[in-house]
Amino acid sequence: MRRVRDIDLLTAYLKGDRQFRETDLSHADFFAADLRDIDFTGSDLTNAYLPYANLSQSCLSGSQLFGAELDNAKLYQTDLSGADLRGVNLARASLRGANLHGANLQGANLQGADLYDADLTQTNLQHANLSRANFAFAQLMGADVRGSNFFRARNLDLRGAMLDSMTIRPDGYRADHY
């Protein structure tokens, strides 16, 4: 995996390069960067700083984003399938139409995130904070949501998802309370 400095990537991006597959960008700083349509497939973005970044219609499939900061990021129709997003901060991020199939979002903060029409099938959302998130038309079939917090989440359909007694429903009650 080749190492690329954040400033070098931004320069190459401005010159039209969009292919950065299997690139080491750990600890990179892309605050408010416009990186639409970029290909980070299999790249290492561990602990990257990406608040307010625009990664719409990009490919981050199979990427490592453990501990990354993506709060308020734009990830419209972004492919995050199979990505490692454990502990990632995606608070208030827009993930409309995003593909998160099979992604690992264990312990992630998605508070207030917009997950409209997102594919969350087979996704690990254990112990994630999804309070006040929008789930309109999102697919959660086979998602593991054990221990997650959905307090005040909107348009949530948990049919086919794996819950436990620690899962907090939108009404504030635990999943085992009827």
Describe the protein's topology.
Blueprint: E1 2-3, H1 6-14, E2 23-24
Task: Give the % helix.
Answer: under 10%
Write down the CATH class.
Answer: Mainly Beta
Uncertain stretches of 5 or more adjacent residues? none
Rg is 16 Å
Summarize this entry quickly:
The chain has 178 residues and is largely without helices or strands.
Which key phrases capture this entry?
178 residues; little secondary structure; Pectate Lyase C-like; 1 helix; 2 strands; elongated
Structure write-up:
Helix 1 (about 5-15) links the parallel strand 1 and strand 2 (about 25). By secondary structure, the protein is mostly loops. The chain has one helix at about 5-15, and strands spanning about 1-5, 25.
